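Researcher: Let's do a round of design. I'm pasting the structure tokens now; please hold your answer until I've finished.
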């Protein structure tokens, strides 16, 4: 549908209007994390967080949706959003009280429940993180990882030698060159590093402990509550689609479902799109473009990918996980 077919309503800020006028969503992404946001040789970005950007674009802009991906370091990412350089941050940025309360930003939910861990050579023969007492550990500044390390070792009466770098790729390179005995970051990042950067992936292990909670989700500026609401409900729609068995392959036929919840989600009943300032097909297009949440997870980071990640906390709430969509009604 053309943009003029979208319902008009007062907006509380400039982002949604600017996105529609531009005809493109500008998403800030990581500088390169396999499975989450990474560019191939032709410049095409793939990953869980870039798929979410595409879902939002499809929902908000219609069939002519376009996206621009801007790679940002941990030090650049929040400033880029505050300055309006990007419309949304779709990266591995942990939701914390400080970030939520003092940066003028809003988190639109959680698309990956993560936690900080440790990557070590198997040759060390370690069984757990507390055996790293006194070890040198590489990590990056500008992330929550540096602070979590200090908290964890202090709380357990242990010590460590921090080897801190400005960027994750510098910390990663230092670890593989032998400058430290362990590399600490989010489990998602460690899985990516082991799969794509380790000289031989089978010679490295991720220790079992998860020493922090690292909920990762999309971030937007506070200047437009309509944009924030749209982003948040696209995420809910992807999770709800998995709950209801709606996939990219069957979403067209599911429009004929007699289930009232499915009909509301896919725009064949009710006025959910109008309430969001979008047209009725917003969720249908998002699902058609990238699939439901489970499809996005399995395609990018699941057990059959090089990252070999299990669903765990990222499973649906009906299967022992934390993924739970608010009611679409």
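Researcher: That's everything. Go ahead.
Model: Designed sequence:
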């Amino acid at each position: 549908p053309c943009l003029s077919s979208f319902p008009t309503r007062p907006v509380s800020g400039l982002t949604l209007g600017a996105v529609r006028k531009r005809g493109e969503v500008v998403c800030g992404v990581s500088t390169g994390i396999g499975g989450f946001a990474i560019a191939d040789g032709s410049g095409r970005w793939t990953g869980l967080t870039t798929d979410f950007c595409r879902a939002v674009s499809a929902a908000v802009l219609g069939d002519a949706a376009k996206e621009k991906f801007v790679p940002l370091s941990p030090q650049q990412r929040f400033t880029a959003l505050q300055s309006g350089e990007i419309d949304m941050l779709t990266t591995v940025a942990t939701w914390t009280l400080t970030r939520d309360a003092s940066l003028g930003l809003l988190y639109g939910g959680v698309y990956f429940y993560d936690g900080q861990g440790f990557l070590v050579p198997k040759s060390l023969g370690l069984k757990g993180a507390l055996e790293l007492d006194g070890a040198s550990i590489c990590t990056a500044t500008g992330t929550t990882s540096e602070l979590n390390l200090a908290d964890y070792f202090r709380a357990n009466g242990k010590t460590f030698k921090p080897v801190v770098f400005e960027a994750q790729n510098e910390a990663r390179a230092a670890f593989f060159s032998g400058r430290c005995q362990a590399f600490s970051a989010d489990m998602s990042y460690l899985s990516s590093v082991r799969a794509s950067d380790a000289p031989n992936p089978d010679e490295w292990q991720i220790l079992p402990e998860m020493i922090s909670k690292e909920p990762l989700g999309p971030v937007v500026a506070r200047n437009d509550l309509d944009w924030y609401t749209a982003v948040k409900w696209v995420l809910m729609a992807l999770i709800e689609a998995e709950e209801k068995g709606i996939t990219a392959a069957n979403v067209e036929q599911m429009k004929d479902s007699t289930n009232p919840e499915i009909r509301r989600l896919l725009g064949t009943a009710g006025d959910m799109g109008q309430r969001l300032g979008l047209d009725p097909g917003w969720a249908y297009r998002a699902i058609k473009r990238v699939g439901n949440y489970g499809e996005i997870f399995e395609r990018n980071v699941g057990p059959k990918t090089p990252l070999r990640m299990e669903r765990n906390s990222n499973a649906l709430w009906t299967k022992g996980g934390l993924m739970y969509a608010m009611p679409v009604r």
